[in-house]
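note to self — DONT lose this again. spent like an hour looking for the file last time. sequence + predicted structure for the chain T wanted, 445 res
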Amino acid sequence: MASSLRHPLFAVVVAVSLTVPWLALWTTGTAEALSTGVTVLLTGIAILGAAFLLAWAAETAEKDVPRSFAIAVLAVLAVAPEYAVDALYAWTAGAQAGTERGIEAGNLAIANMTGANRILIGLGWSAIALFTLRRSLKVADVSVRHRDGVLADSVVLDRGIAIEILFLGMATVWAFFIPLMGGIDILDTIVLVGLYVLYIAIILKAGVEVEEEHIGVPAYLQTYARPKRVATVIGLFAYSGVMLLLAVEAFAHGLEGLGVDYGIPKFFMIQWVAPLASESPELIVVAVLVLKSRSTAGFNALISSKLNQWTLLIGTLAVVYSLGLGQYGVLEFEYKQALEIWLTAAQSFFALAILVNFEISGREAVALLALFSSQVTIEFLLLRVLPVANPEVLSHQSLLAFTAVYVLLGTALFVHRRRAIAELMTVAGATAQQAIGRAPTPEAD
């Protein structure tokens, strides 16, 4: 009995069993009768189980496809619930265009998108970095570099992530111009989706990386013959992806309901609580990788998630809006949402400046977390708590102020790390050349 409990497949059974209660209730149509609290509990447990299955599928897939591609698939599936929530608002904006509800839905689509992106960096990147550094004090982690000083230790990233950082940089530059063009349109779709397609083509053609030694469930599944292994990976990806789509929307709406019960404004819930719920599978997956001393792979997944959210998520909004409208249209938004896009792009700019040397230190992680949390707190206080005159104007000014802080800090870091930029471009260029069959000529001694 004890030996069967230690078998890797037992862990798979446990993970699947976590998803079964919600799946059964959803399938039988009895989930709607549950209280909000019970819905949040059961969907949260289902998300946890699906996240483990997703992580194991991605790790197992590394035996047959480039690790970057496996992580990219993991990232897309992990944030698919966020796509679903945002697409719902974009569709509603198109279907009810010209009405008060349609205008509100368009603004909520942008708010949900910017909130999700800022949470991923401000909370996700920083928390996982600090978690990794804290864990390295007890468990050896080759991806952690120890230095003297408070929070001076850093998580060292795989230089193979250079191509993701480069494409994320291009998408970030483009994002600064989106508010100047009157809305999200077909040009944004072509550029941003095009960037992601090109990125996927490069990492697929760049070749399979050197395999890492796996443990537990992935190590066991990799012993299967190739046909059985591929079928297992596809099955795990499909099941976990479907479960996330079934559970996360109900989880997000449940949290929104709890928030409303406690007097939290709807707009705040859509921008922050719903994205936090939809990002939870990704954070759980990465935490699992860190616990297995695969911090580099975990950070690669986070960066890949940011890239696909910053390209696919934004780029497809105009398509979904047009489908809801029944003809081609531009997803327009108010001035406040333009400020939110600029702030999100500025945060991404600062985060890229941190990663350009393939490291993130404890101090840098704290800076990301502090800037993110203080901005959200200040805006909430201005709009809902403090008795100030013209709260909307002050809110706009605070968004502009934080945007300026991010840009100034990012610019200073990029200037200080200009040699690191050149190195990153060299590494990314070598990857691209390898993808098109032009391996760089080795330098002479």
